[in-house]
Specification:
heterodimer; A: alpha+beta; Cytochrome-c3 Hydrogenase, chain B; four-stranded antiparallel beta sheet; three-stranded antiparallel beta sheet; 9 strands; B: mainly alpha; 15 helices
Chain lengths: 373, 328
């Protein structure tokens, strides 16, 4: 906790301590705001309240048993974190994953992405003072959780993607329920658009607020919907295709302005693209096993460096593993998107109104345990 | 009231009026508290309170008992006398305007010649209460909420007053009963639509309701000016807010919606109050509806809207009214 001391010429500023408990920080994030009137002249994000040493834990137990920890880093994109880690170990140990398992991974990961975006949608509007959309979004999200609960056994912190495949095969019921859900969510677009997206107050609150440029994004390593909101169509699913994503036809939604409205619309449109991927994957779902035949109990990782990147709901997630030949990693580095995305805040939010700080920070879609992993 | 006036001595009349006012304040808080939670629930696709009584109808009673039983927490650094004074100041002044509202031809506490001015004067004491509450809490969020509230309420009182003045110019009186009576053929909402719209917007801002609830914007200021208040001191603010909603909606009814006029019922000089209450609660429903539909505006947008649009438009409207009245 290294808080920069306030300089002398700033001593007259009003320091507001937003967090660790504050309705709009969505977790134990603390932001020190130096205010002049309603204007936030300087922001210091203070991290570390939820630090649980996940990377250190990874160095102390067999690589396979670290899988549940990945879900605890980003509780909203748990399956995608599972997927990235499973891919990493498969790459290291040279395990072939059956096609069916890859398809199931894509379907569940995209469902997970939709529920993350839906939760963000509701919570963001709550930040902006609209109370109702969160209930509508949660209503839809609940269906995803129910579908995933049936197949994975948990509702939030999944441990479903395993080394070599998935822990349990999906059945016809899963397929039909997922198809029904796709229908349902599509039928609700008009409602979301009428209630929220076209609202004048919302547009006034979001347009031209918290503008990012591709240059700022490159400097801080910003990825995900925020980067795509600036017009850069960078999505790991296309840039460095993994799993079976090359087989699907989907767009990378982009906007040009880079403000809060741009990332808002990018996320909103990504929901539809994820639905398209799920639909195609369900159509093409191959028969076969959902788990590789031979996955050794003790996973020996040959000495070397391995990397695996996936597109998490908030941006690029990378695992970097250094193995020394045993089954325990020598070092595991996780590159999480929210950490990089948050680091733009002191630059982009200086001089903003307090309300705009809330909208700009909300548009980052922060998940604090992922920052303080 | 003339009959009462002649029979009863002044003192007893005051007591009756005060009791009536208290019944309205608490009854309204109960009805609106329940209605707001139920409506919010249904807008959000959930049932709202369901546990206590039939469809949760006793929920507010239970909540009231709970709030009365709660400890009154006074922060250590707070300015204690002012801190305790603020909720009283937010709550007490709502009784005076209630005495002046003509619920029907004969149901009115006092009919005085400057009724409108008295109502607006008492309604603006609320700002002082919020400022004192926010300042004395010694909490940065409370202070922000208080400052926002003062800026907002002072600004929005101007278009509110000017839009009402347009009606006053048409009727040549400040007396609420005469204004209500002057609308017997046509309600002023049809003659003064712009003034009505401006009044509605100013009314939402004056009562600090969403989308203009900046003083208590919970995603920015946790709970705004009442962050530190607990138990009954908190509920007095809420009671005051609901009573203020009732008052501003009543004023809208008197000035624009024809007061107690409506389809005649038996004993209309008293039962006209039913029409009056129906109109008031229709407006209150509107307030609840927009609160649970729209996001919150930003503070500078709110102030710009007032100074750049509402005040000029209300002045133009007043000018046109004056010219037309003069010509006719």
């Amino acid at each position: 906790m290294n808080v920069e001391p306030l300089e002398d010429d700033r001593h007259h500023r009003f320091v507001l301590n937003m967090g660790p408990q504050h309705p709009s920080t969505h977790g134990v994030l603390r932001v020190l705001l130096e205010l002049e009137g309603e204007y936030a002249m300087h922001l210091h994000p203070v991290l570390g309240y939820g630090h649980r040493c996940h990377e250190k834990i990874a160095e102390h137990k067999p690589a396979k048993s670290f899988m549940p920890n990945t879900a605890r880093m980003d509780y909203l994109g748990a399956l995608i974190y599972n997927q990235g880690y499973a891919q990493l170990l498969e790459k290291a140990a040279g395990i072939e994953v059956p096609q069916r398992a890859e398809y199931i991974r894509v379907i569940t990961a995209e469902l997970n992405r939709i529920q993350s975006h839906l939760l963000w949608y509701g919570a963001y509007l709550l930040d902006l003072g609209a109370f109702t959309p969160i209930m509508f979004a949660f209503d839809d999200r609940e269906h995803i959780l129910d579908i995933l609960e049936d197949v994975t056994g948990s509702r939030l912190t999944y441990c479903y993607h395993r080394v070599g495949g998935v822990s349990k095969d999906i059945d016809d019921k899963f397929v039909s329920r997922t198809r029904a859900f796709i229908e349902r969510l599509r039928s609700r677009y008009t409602m979301y658009e009428d209630l929220v997206n076209g609202n004048v107050i919302l547009q006034k609150r979001l347009i031209d607020v918290g503008e990012l440029t591709p240059q700022i994004c490159a400097r801080y390593g910003v990825t995900g919907p925020l980067l795509r909101g600036t017009g850069v169509a960078y999505d790991i699913r296309r840039a460095e295709p993994y799993s079976v994503y090359p087989e699907f036809d989907f767009e990378i939604p982009t906007e040009t302005k880079g403000d809060c409205m741009a990332s808002f619309m990018v996320r909103y449109r990504e929901i539809e693209q994820s639905l398209r991927i799920i639909e195609q994957a369900l159509d093409k779902l191959p028969e076969g096993p959902s788990m590789a035949a031979k996955v050794p109990k003790k996973l020996k990782l040959p000495a070397g460096d391995y990397n695996s990147s996936v597109e998490a709901p908030r941006g690029e997630l990378s695992y970097y593993l250094v193995a020394d030949g045993s089954d325990v990693p020598y070092r595991l580095k996780v590159r999480t998107p929210s950490y990089s995305n948050l680091s733009t805040v002191p630059e982009t939010c200086s001089g903003m109104l307090l309300s705009d700080v809330v909208s700009a920070m909300g548009s980052l879609d922060l998940v604090i345990p992922e920052i303080d992993r | 009231m003339e009959t009462l006036h002649s029979i009863l001595p002044e003192l007893i009349r005051i007591v009756i009026c005060a009791i009536g006012g208290a019944v309205i304040v608490f009854g309204n808080a109960l009805v609106m508290g329940y209605a707001e939670r139920k409506l919010a629930g249904h807008i959000m696709l959930r049932p709202g309170p369901m546990e206590v009584g039939w469809h949760g109808i006793l929920q507010l009673v239970v909540d009231g008992i709970k709030l009365m039983g709660k400890q009154l927490v006074v922060p250590k650094q707070a300015d204690k006398p002012l801190y305790m004074l603020a909720p009283i100041l937010a709550f007490a002044p709502v009784f005076a305007p209630l005495l002046l509202i003509p619920f029907s031809d004969k149901l009115q506490g006092f009919d005085i010649d400057v009724g409108m001015l008295v109502i607006l004067a008492f309604a603006s004491i609320n700002v002082l209460a919020i400022l004192i509450g926010g300042w004395s809490s010694n909490n940065k969020y409370s202070l922000f909420g208080a400052f926002r509230s003062v800026a907002q309420n002072v600004a929005y009182e101007i278009p509110m007053l000017i839009s009402l003045l347009a009606v006053v110019f048409m009727t040549n009186t400040f007396s609420l009963r005469e204004i209500a009576a002057a609308q017997s053929p046509v309600w002023f909402v049809l003659l003064q639509p712009l003034a009505f719209l401006i009044y509605i917007v100013a009314m939402v801002a004056e009562t600090n309701r969403a989308p203009f609830d900046l003083p208590e914007a919970e995603s920015e200021l946790t709970a705004g000016f009442h962050t530190e208040y607990s138990g009954m001191s908190f509920s007095l603010f809420v009671l005051g807010e609901y009573a203020n909603m009732f008052i501003v909606c009543s004023v809208a009814t008197v000035f624009f919606l024809g007061g107690s006029s409506g389809i005649p019922l038996p004993y209309f000089e008293y039962t006209g109050a039913l029409w009056f209450l129906l109109k008031v609660y229709a407006l209150m429903f509107f307030l609840v509806w927009i609160r649970w539909t729209y996001p919150r505006t930003r503070f500078d947008q709110l102030m710009n809207f007032c100074w750049k649009y509402l005040i000029p438009f209300s002045l133009v409207n007043l000018l046109i009214t004056v010219v037309v009245v003069k010509l006719i």
